[in-house]
């Protein structure tokens, strides 16, 4: 659907307006609990940018509000759009019986760019319906340059429509054989001299990510990859699905914006992240889908780490793109409070993507990326599961999803068919 543009908007009467206002740093400790909630709140938006957030009685009396188009949020929660800070959405769906190792990676390399683009648009629209307004998308073909560049070009084509996409080039998970690993460790030259500079020059990715498992033979390669990314001014991320120590140490050393997964983070990793700038991005749906171990969210928060959340959406491995379900899992499986989970799914996720200056909270000067939810208290997000509570999604002040009505049925349709 074509988004509708309205230049000045007044959203008024929200039962709870969650602004997430606060410091410019990632939120940690008690700050993770502070949602900047305003009862009976209103927002004034001009040309897609937030001008004011405050109590309805004050905002509706501002001069610009008098000519604005009004949207009632009576009885509802208004909050920032979700920032999904970790996805693999380009992966093709594979039936679960097809468990051949590497099958989905192979499919990703062989599928055409056009087909990927069509599929990506379908997922992005579904994300908009579920309240996501900014999403990070990882590739995962490297070191196959052509396939990797194909994925990055697809991301370029779907950028901004309707969501903001933060593209990340992810160096694929290493092979298990020793010979193949040796081959991999010889990739440094190509990565440093050719691939990453090309990505940077063409502005194809914001982040360089590395799939870092505890394979010491490759740690020098990963170090160099991150060092080159740093020297080129590309953001850094580290994928830590297995034992995390090496991954966490590398992430902190190379100033990564985030280290992600962390299901196996131990006490040392937790302490290290507690005193670092690197955000810990946690992905409870990955654990739920595999019926596996969850990341130690409570211990990370208590140690002072800045925690963010993401879906890890991958149609094959983690088939959910609903950030509301992630908040539910973060609360009921990882011991986070509803306020911490909301903060981790918005402003801290924006920090993990380096875009917290534009999105993640509802403060003057920021993009009007917001949700109107069919609940009257945000804590209901931690109660419902798998539901879609989004009434409206707005991106840069445009309505990109508007809940439709269930079609009224004629009386004859209500009779049983038999
Ligand atoms: Zn992942």
In short:
With 418 residues, the protein is α/β, with parallel strands linked by helices. The protein has helices spanning 56-59, 103-110, 113-129, 145-158, 178-185, 188-201, 216-232, 245-253, 267-274, 284-290, 297-302, 323-334, 338-345, 347-352, and strands spanning 8-18, 37-46, 49-55, 69-72, 77-80, 82-84, 132-138, 164-171, 207-211, 235-240, 258-261, 279-282, 307-309, 370-373, 390-395, 398-402. The protein contains 14 helices and 16 strands.
Roughly what percent helix?
25-40%
Instruction: Give me the CATH superfamily of the largest domain.
Output: Metal-dependent hydrolases
| Mean pLDDT across residues | 90
The CATH class of the largest domain turns out to be Alpha Beta
Number of strands: 16
H-E order: EEEHEEEHHEHEHHEHEHEHEHHEHHHEEE
SS field, number of helical segments: 14
Rg calculated over all Cα atoms = 22 Å
Summarize the main sheet: 8 strands, mixed
How would you explain this protein's 3D organization?
The chain is of the alpha/beta class and 418 residues long. It folds into two domains: 8-80 and 360-402, Urease, subunit C, domain 1 (Roll), CATH 2.30.40; 82-352, Metal-dependent hydrolases (TIM Barrel, Alpha-Beta Barrel). Helix content is 33%, strand content 22%. It is built from 14 helices and 16 strands. The protein has helices at residues 56-59, 103-110, 113-129, 145-158, 178-185, 188-201, 216-232, 245-253, 267-274, 284-290, 297-302, 323-334, 338-345, 347-352, and strands spanning 8-18, 37-46, 49-55, 69-72, 77-80, 82-84, 132-138, 164-171, 207-211, 235-240, 258-261, 279-282, 307-309, 370-373, 390-395, 398-402. Strands 1, 2, 3, 4, 5, 14, 15 and 16 form an eight-stranded mixed β-sheet that branches. Helix 9 (267-274) links the parallel strand 11 (258-261) and strand 12 (279-282). The longest helix has 17 residues, at 113-129. It starts with 7 loop residues before the first strand and ends in a 16-residue tail after the last strand. The mean pLDDT is 90. The chain binds zinc ion. Residues 86, 88, 239, 312 line the site of zinc ion.
């Amino acid at each position: 659907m074509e988004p509708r543009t309205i230049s000045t908007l007044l959203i008024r009467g929200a039962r709870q307006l969650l602004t997430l206002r606060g410091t410019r740093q990632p939120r940690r400790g008690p700050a993770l609990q502070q949602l900047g909630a305003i009862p009976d709140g209103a927002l004034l938006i001009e040309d897609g940018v937030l001008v004011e957030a405050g109590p309805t009685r004050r905002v509706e009396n501002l001069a610009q509000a008098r000519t604005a188009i009004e949207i009632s949020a009576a009885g509802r929660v208004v909050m920032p759009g979700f920032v999904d800070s970790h996805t693999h959405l380009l992966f093709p769906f594979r039936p679960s019986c097809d468990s051949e190792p590497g099958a989905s990676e192979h499919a990703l390399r062989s599928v055409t760019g056009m087909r990927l683009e069509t599929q990506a648009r379908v997922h992005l629209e579904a994300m908009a319906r579920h309240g996501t307004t900014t999403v990070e998308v990882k590739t995962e073909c490297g070191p196959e340059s052509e396939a990797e560049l194909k994925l990055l070009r697809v991301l370029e084509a779907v950028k901004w429509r309707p969501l903001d996409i933060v593209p990340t080039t992810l160096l694929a998970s290493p092979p298990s054989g020793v010979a193949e690993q040796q081959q991999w460790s010889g990739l440094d030259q190509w990565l440093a001299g050719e691939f990453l500079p090309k990505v940077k020059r063409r502005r194809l990715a914001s982040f360089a990510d590395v799939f870092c498992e505890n394979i010491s033979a490759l740690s020098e390669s990963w170090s160099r990859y991150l060092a080159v990314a740093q020297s080129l001014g590309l953001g850094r991320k580290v994928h830590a699905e297995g034992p995390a120590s090496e991954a966490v140490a590398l992430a902190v050393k190379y100033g990564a914006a985030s280290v992600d997964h962390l299901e196996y983070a131990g006490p040392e990793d937790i302490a290290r992240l507690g005193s670092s700038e690197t955000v810990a991005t946690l992905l409870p749906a990955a654990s739920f889908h595999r019926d596996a171990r969850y990341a130690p969210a409570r211990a990370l928060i208590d140690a002072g780490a800045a925690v963010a959340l993401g879906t890890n959406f991958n149609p094959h491995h983690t088939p959910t793109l609903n950030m509301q379900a992630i908040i539910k899992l973060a609360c009921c499986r990882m011991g986070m409070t509803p306020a911490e989970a909301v903060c981790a799914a918005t402003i801290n996720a924006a920090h993990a993507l380096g875009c917290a200056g534009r999105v993640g909270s509802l403060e003057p000067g920021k993009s009007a990326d917001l949700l109107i939810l069919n609940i009257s208290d945000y804590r209901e997000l931690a109660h419902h599961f798998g539901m879609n509570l989004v009434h409206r999604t707005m991106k840069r002040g445009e309505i990109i999803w508007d809940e439709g009505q269930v079609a009224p049925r004629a009386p004859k349709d209500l009779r049983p068919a038999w």
